[in-house]
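Co-fold these.
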Amino acid sequence: GAVVSQHPSWVICKSGTSVKIECRSLDFQATTMFWYRQFPKQSLMLMATSNEGSKATYEQGVEKDKFLINHASLTLSTLTVTSAHPEDSSFYICSARANRTSGFWARWKNIQYFGAGTRLSVL
Amino acid sequence: AQSVAQPEDQVNVAEGNPLTVKCTYSVSGNPYLFWYVQYPNRGLQFLLKYITGDNLVKGSYGFEAEFNKSQTSFHLKKPSALVSDSALYFCAVRHPSGGSYIPTFGRGTSLIVHP
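Predicted complex below.
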């Protein structure tokens, strides 16, 4: 299947600093990428949907000024946690969906592929 | 609106025995259904999907799932469990068209396979 790379896998930062997380689709183009947050032993919470070349769509209750999302190309989306605080500590996961669904890509149609996640710890 | 329920927080099974992880869904129209697996501190890995066609779908690692429209279920199954199957399993449903095609995930079921 398709590969989504997420970096870094683990980051520790001081309270008040900003952290950038990258999500790359390595072997396919992704018009749409998704950012999730996952708390221990809980399901995924969708934070925002990121569309290449346009502003991200944030879910209700997610602070857009706190969690800055940029989707500058068809293979890269970034999530920046600004002025991080201990309550922002969590596991963040990105996913991407292939936008080309014909020919070779047809087998990947409708499937979201996930990055390995980023464990953020804010001290 | 679409929703998915995984009624069991945890499923325990002995190695070699068959396993079932339950999932029921609610969506208008014909659903797109997915199963993902998550190992500790990792992202989700795609296992299988149902879009149309045969109700029995075969996926990765010997897993399969059966779509049952009348019961609105999409239970995940494997004939013989392995200890390495121990992980967190997520069911997801998506409406086939419209909107931003965002799936809804269940809360997850922790599968524990005992040696």
